Amino acid sequence: MTKDVLVSVRGIQIAKQEGSSEPVEVITAGDYYKKNDKHYVIYDEIVEGYDGTTKNIIKLQEDCVDITKRGLMNVHMVFEKNKKNVTCYQTPFGSMILGINAKDIRIVEEEHDISVAVDYDLELNYEHLADCKIKMAIQSKKEGSQFRI
Predict the structure, then answer these.
(1) Which of 37, 58, 121, 123 to pair with 102, CA 20 to 30 A apart?
(2) What is the number of alpha carbons within 13 Å of residue 149 lying toward its C-beta?
(3) Is 129 left (phi over 0), alpha (psi -120 to 50) or beta?
(4) pLDDT tens digits for 88-99?
(5) Burial of residue 120 (number of CB atoms within 10 Å: 0-12, 13-18, 19+)
């Protein structure tokens, strides 16, 4: 995998009460490196209608996806299979307590691509909010194949 990568992050929240889903997708350029058997992906995210950016740092390792956002939004989310993690999510609208219970984590590493899929339950202020999925594709800008998530 090269240092210069393309990153696709797609998330879906399925609210149980309403049965509706909210798909969100970000595709951007980023940086990749591997250290101590952990994959690191770093990219900046721009939120429409706001000045400034949010720096995203994704750390991947077996059965764990760690996402840190700093800037306009601030949060440190840890997705560990069969373990609930609680964090404070700071947004321009205020802070929220998020509970994350990862049910399944799949990471597939190939020579020029990494695919990630996470299924998890999301709680907001200690109440179940939605069943969620995150799919990520990280690929070398030059050698990577088409996004397959």
Answers:
(1) 37
(2) 25
(3) alpha
(4) 999 888 999 999
(5) buried
Distances (CA, A) of 10 to 37, 123, 127, 136: 24, 19, 24, 6
Three-state secondary structure string covering 14-60? ECCCCCCEEEEEEEEEEEEEEECCEEEEEEEEECCCCCCEEEEEEEE
pLDDT (tens digit per residue) in 94-132: 999 999 999 999 999 999 999 999 999 999 999 999 999
Of 78, 69, 74, give the one whose Cα is nearest residue 100.
78
CA dihedral 95, 51, 28, 107 (to 10 degrees): -10
For 30-41, how does the pLDDT look when each residue is reduced to its tens digit (9 = 90+)?
999 999 999 999
End-to-end CA distance of the chain: 18
Q: Would you call 145 helix, strand, or coil by DSSP? A: coil
C-alpha distances in Å from residue 128, one per residue of 15, 120, 131: 9, 11, 8
What are 53's two structure tokens?
């950016």
